[in-house]
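Q: Hi! First time doing this. I have a protein sequence and I read that you can turn it into a structure. Is that right? Here it is:
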Amino acid sequence: MASGQETNDSSNNNSSPKKVYKDPDDGRQRFLLELEFVQCLANPTYIHYLAQNRYFEDEAFIGYLKYLQYWQRPEYIKYIMYPHCLSFLELLQNASFRNAMAHPANKELTHRQQFYFWKNYRNNRLKHILPRPLPEPTAAPPSNALPPPLPPTATTMAASSAPVSAPPVPSPMQYGVPSGPPLAKNDPRNAIDRRKRKKDG
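A: Yes, that's right. Below is the predicted 3D structure, encoded as structure tokens:
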């Protein structure tokens, strides 16, 4: 009989399961809240706010930041819209960074560095992505070699007997303007107006 009672007791334990919490929306609400919080970490001003209000002194909050590192896994990272939040989440694991973000100057420095990263990101990526052609090797002329002298001709002998005068050097402003008369200006006040005007009166 004792064995029969034991089997009844064990069957009662197995048949009555423990009450396990079941999310009504299968964890969707929690997922969205954690996603929103992680993405808020992309803002240095928000991190400064958390440091000023002493959230980083709470061990439970530090544990929560460690727990949130699962967002760096590939199956979750595809939901992140602001990838800087993952960098800041990694930096927030360091106590010295958490303490430094309490100072406004460090917040401004972080914000400025983030801005410069965004500003120059595309150009920096293109420098590393686009292939550059290799420079062509060129043979340098020997430094001791002088150009060969020109043989004397009749024109050079005649020119050497005349006094040497340098040709006039044009002004740099003359390069953009063609020679000849100045350019005609289109002034509407001087042009003939072919439209009919209203007469006063």
